[in-house]
Q: What sequence folds into this?
């Protein structure tokens, strides 16, 4: 939480904002949403010249085990502006033997154990902190559930207000959690696409900041810490060859890609893990775009799945998701809802992991990627569980 007193600099190397689509560069010192020239996503850039990254690497072990240990590569300038619940540094677990994945070394990073129960707290903590530093006190977001809960908690912690727009099929536990943190909740539309349209229409004149995926610059910076943690927890000897990531809005896969690129630029990493986008067969716009060689994903008609966080028929900034997968030499795979249900069960009863349907989709994808040779015998694979399965225990089958 912010405190009174003189500024306490974080040492952030934040430089400016840039649009990778059209090359526009902008100051990072005022509130921004999307690129004013082409309406594409904006991303933070950092001045990494004349900075001793290896000295920085040595200091990390002395810092608290939260994502804010990477503060030089995050956008907040004054540590009094940081809004935190202690998020970050979720465990990496060796799953041991996995059926239909013989010969693979399978690990899982479990963000279901983070505050508010999902990886969404990473992006929201960083984005709310930076927005608060720039004077914002009102927020809104369309969400399948976890992002809304994370924003509600961060807004409460920051003394700000939040309104959450949830699709009609969102589990009741998610709405209850948002309300418990003091946020307003609006139910609107069958998917996050319709909820987002309704939210931006309703909030156009309220002065609230849109915290939607990739529609502001700093949630991706929080998600970047996923990659930074994988590097610190597993490199150099155990860095995964491949990372399987459940892809809805895609900020996580974009964030990890940005983290690995920065680490390579700094000379702290010599290779990038292959990134694989996992989506349900009933809503797989990114996988289809990869299969068909498209530059951007086309909206998915009649979207449906048991994994609400993956029910994103038209991900904003899909070009950046596709860029991350292709430049990392990864790929995409779609899995059935039936296999996701089985994976939730197997992760719990074989491995003791409470996984959301989204996170379990990566476990379901293992056999397909092993069978088609995308992942080869002897490789180390990391599954990313993005959320706890607890909010889904009473959800309809």
A:
């Amino acid at each position: 939480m912010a405190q009174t007193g003189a500024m306490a600099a974080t040492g952030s190397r934040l430089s400016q904002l840039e649009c990778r689509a059209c090359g526009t560069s902008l100051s990072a010192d005022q509130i921004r949403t999307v690129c004013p020239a082409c309406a594409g996503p904006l991303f933070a850039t950092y001045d990494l010249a004349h900075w001793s990254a290896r000295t920085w690497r040595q200091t990390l072990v002395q810092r608290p085990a939260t994502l804010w240990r990477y503060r030089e590569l995050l956008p907040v300038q004054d540590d009094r502006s940081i809004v935190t619940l202690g998020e970050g540094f979720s465990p990496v677990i060796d799953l041991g033997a996995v059926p239909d994945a013989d010969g693979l070394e399978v690990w899982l990073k479990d963000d279901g154990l983070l505050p508010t129960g999902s990886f969404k707290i990473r992006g929201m903590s960083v984005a709310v902190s930076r927005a608060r530093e720039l004077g914002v006190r009102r927020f809104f977001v369309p969400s399948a559930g976890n992002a809304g809960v994370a924003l509600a908690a961060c807004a409460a912690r920051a003394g700000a207000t939040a309104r959450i727009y949830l699709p009609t099929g969102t589990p009741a536990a998610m709405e209850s959690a948002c309300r418990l943190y003091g946020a307003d909740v609006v139910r609107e539309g069958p998917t996050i696409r319709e909820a987002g349209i309704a939210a931006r229409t309703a909030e156009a004149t309220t002065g609230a900041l849109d915290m939607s995926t990739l529609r502001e610059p700093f949630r991706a910076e929080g998600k970047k810490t996923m990659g930074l943690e994988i590097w610190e927890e597993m490199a150099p000897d155990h860095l995964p060859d491949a990372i399987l990531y459940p892809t809805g809005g895609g900020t996580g896969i974009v964030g990890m890609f940005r983290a690995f690129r920065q680490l390579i630029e700094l000379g702290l990493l010599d290779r990038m893990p292959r990134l694989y986008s996992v989506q349900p067969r009933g809503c797989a716009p990114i996988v289809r775009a990869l299969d068909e060689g498209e530059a951007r994903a086309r909206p998915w008609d009649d979207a449906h799945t048991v994994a609400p966080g993956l029910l994103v028929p038209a991900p904003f900034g899909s070009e950046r998701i596709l860029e991350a997968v292709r430049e990392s030499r990864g790929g995409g795979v779609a899995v059935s809802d039936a296999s996701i249900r089985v994976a939730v069960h197997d992760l719990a009863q074989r491995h003791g992991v409470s996984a959301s349907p989204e996170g379990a989709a990566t476990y379901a994808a293992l056999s397909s990627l092993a069978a088609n040779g995308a992942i080869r015998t002897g490789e180390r694979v990391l599954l990313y569980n993005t959320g706890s399965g607890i909010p889904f225990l009473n959800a309809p089958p």
User: Anything to note?
Assistant: Residues 120-210 form a domain with the Rossmann fold fold (CATH 3.40.50.1100). The first helix runs from residue 53 to 60. The first strand starts at residue 14 and ends at 19. The chain has three domains: 14-81, 92-117+218-392, 120-210.
